[in-house]
Amino acid sequence: MEFTDAQVQRYSRHIILSDVGGKGQKKLARAKVLVIGAGGLGSPAALYLAAAGVGTIGLVDGDVVDLSNLQRQILHTTATLGQPKVESGKKMLASLNPDITIKTYQENVSADNIMGLLHDYDIILDGSDNFSTRFLVNDACFFAKKTLVSGSIFRFEGQLTTIKPHEGHPCYRCLYPEPPPAGLVPNCQEAGVLGVLAGTIGVLQASEAIKEILGIGEALADRLLLYDALEMKFRKLGRPKDPDCRLCGPNPTITNLLSDYTVSCSL
Amino acid sequence: MNQCFQIQVNGESRESRAGTTVADLLRDLDIKPDRVAVEVNLEIVDKGVFAQRSLQEGDRIEIISFIGGGR
Q1: What is this structure's pTM?
Q2: Which residue out of A63, A71, A154, A263 would a mutagenesis test of the B interface target, given it has the greatest number of B Cβ atoms within 10 Å?
Q3: For the residues A77-101, what does the mean pLDDT come to?
Q4: Å between B1 CA and nearest CA of chain A
C-alpha cells in the first residue's frame, strides 16, 4: 500500500513524528476499530480516529439523533436530527476523511450479535451508556481476545482504562466483579453530564486506541484513570488483576457469554 | 482506649481508629457500599467482607465509584 501525495500531505504531522512515521501511518490505515455507541464518547473518539486515518471504523448504535444529544454528541448536527446515529455519524466522518471505510450497524449490542460484530475488528471502544452493555462487551472481548478501551462519564467525572486480559492484564470484572444493582446508579439521562466531559474522555479513548495500533507508549492496562472536571484533577490508580476473577481468573465460572445481561437494564 | 492512626483515602490522609473496617469507613463517609469498588493497598476487597476487613496504619484505600455513562 502506498500513500498518494494528498495522503502524505494529510498525514504529514503524523509522518514526521519519529514514533509514527510512514510505517505507523500505514498501520493506522490497516487498523480496524469498532466504536460501540455513536454518542457522547463515540463521537469525539470516532472523529479523531477518522482524522488520524484509521482505515476502517465501525459504528454500532440503534438510536436516532435527538435534540438532547447535540449538547455533547458532536458526530451529529441539527440537520441530522431524527436520522439513525450511525448514518449521521458516517456522513460526518466521511466528510472529514473520504479515504477511510466506515461501516454502520444500526442495532444495539446484545449477546446474540456481539461476537459477530467484534469479529472483524482489532480494537473495540466502549462508549455505551449502561452497565449491562459494559459487562457484555467486556466478556465478549475477553472471549474474542480483543483489546477494549473503556471510557465512561457521569455528571462531572470520567473513567478510562484499557482492557487486555489476553496479554495478562486485568479485565473489567477484576475491578467491578458484578454490575451494581438495577436502579442504584443513575445514567446520564437521569443525572446529567457535562457535555465537554464526553469530549475529554472520548478523545483519551481514541488516544489509547492509536497507541495500541502503533505499539507505542504505555497502555493504561493495569491502571484506571479518574478525571474530575470540577476539581480539574486526574488520578491514576493501580488496577490489579483479581486472582479470583470469575472471567479471567484461573478457575473461571463464566466460560461463555451469559444468557442474560439485562440485570441493570433499568438504569 | 481507642488507638488512632493515619490512613490514606483517595490520596488524602485521614485519621482512623483501631478496629475500623471498610464498612465503617464507607458509613463514616456516607457512601453506599453497592455503588463503589474498594481497593486497599492495590487489592480489590470483596464486597462480602467489607464488614470484616479491618484497616491498618498506613493503608491506602481507594474508593472507586461505578460510572457507566457514555452516550
Answers
A1: 0.92
A2: A154
A3: 98
A4: 35
